[in-house]
Structures are given as C-alpha cells and as structure tokens.
Design goal:
This protein is an alpha+beta fold. The protein is built from 6 helices and 7 strands. The radius of gyration is 16 Å and the shape is globular. The mean pLDDT is 81.
Length: 188
C-alpha cells in the first residue's frame, strides 16, 4: 500500500507539473493575502511537515520590510517555492535557509542550503527540463517549472554555489505581478 500511495503521489506531481508548464494549476485557486502572510504560510506548512516533506530546519529571514503588500497568491508560485525548498532539503537535510527581501520593485527570495552545491554542468543548464543529478526518471522538472513560472510573471530565477559551500537559488518576482489591482508596490 505504501508503494502504491507513493506512485499515486508521483503521478499527481507529474500531472501538476505538466499543467503548471501549460499555465494551469491543478485543482487550486488564487487567494487574497499579503506578501508576508503568503511567505509565512509556506514556511509554516513546510515546518509542520504536513506534506511529508523532509525534517530539515527551515530558517526564515524576513527582510521584506514595510509596508507589506496585498497580493493575489498564485498557487503555481507557492508550489515552485515549495519545490525549491524541497530540493534544498534533499541536498542539505539538516538546514535550509529562506530569505525574503524587497529590491527594485521585486520580491526577492533566496533558498540556501549546506549541501554539496550544484554540478557546474547543472549551473550551465539551469532551468532546462530533465537535467538532474538525482538519478530518477523524469527528474529535473522542478527547476524547469520554477524558471518558467517566474518568467510568465515577468521574473527570473538563478542559482549559484556559495563560496563557503552549499548552493543558493534566487527568485525575483515583480511585485506588480502579484499586487492587488489599485494597491501600490512601494520599494524599499
């Protein structure tokens, strides 16, 4: 039964990935919230292990500043941020860091880990589908979806190896793409 449940979950993840790549999110709707509440909900869900994610410590540094921005939370964005945290936890089961800040009208998120870092070939092909070092069939879709979801929102994603070890994935999302109509997106 456990093997069957794992297979069903993999199938659901694959279907969700395909739908997200096509610009659709499976069975989810947007919600009205704020940047800070959106991020705190992701952190709380991850820390609670409600989705069966790995038990690494998730250190959250909120440097977004004031004022908070009312947004329409995109389920695809929530999923790709969660995938970036999951990937970091696989590489670094003991610690993952999530930093949020505001810069040049953008929400900037950095997911860092203490793992082995990215292979140089992975950094060169960052965001291309099916490039993975995990050795699983169908691997490498998560970073591809991250790059494409952010690009559809006018944002970008990048990755780097840290000089002290580990890696960081950086996500930049224009606040204007998330903000409720009629609400300003004051910078710093």
């Amino acid at each position: 039964l456990a093997d069957m449940e794992a297979a069903v979950q993999r199938c659901k993840a694959i279907v969700s990935s395909i739908l997200m790549a096509a610009g659709e999110a499976r069975g989810t709707v947007t919600e009205f919230t704020s940047v800070r509440a959106f991020l705190q909900a992701i952190v709380a869900e991850w820390r609670s292990n409600a989705t069966g994610r790995m038990p690494a410590e998730l250190a959250f540094a909120d440097h977004f500043g004031e004022p908070d921005v009312p947004i329409i939370a995109d389920p695809a964005l929530r999923q790709v941020i969660g995938n970036a945290i999951d990937n970091a936890a696989e590489a670094s089961p003991e610690w993952v860091g999530l930093t949020a800040l505001r810069a040049r009208g953008q929400l900037v998120l950095e997911v860092a880990d203490h793992g082995p870092g990215f292979d140089p070939a992975m950094l060169q092909s960052f965001g291309r589908p099916y490039h993975s070092t995990k050795g699983r069939a169908g691997g490498g879709v998560g970073l591809f979806l991250l790059v494409n979801v952010l690009r559809k929102m006018g944002g970008a994603a990048s990755a780097r190896n840290n000089p002290e070890g580990g890696a960081t994935v950086r996500m930049e999302i224009p606040l204007a793409a998330l903000a409720l109509p009629g609400h300003g997106v004051a910078d710093e």
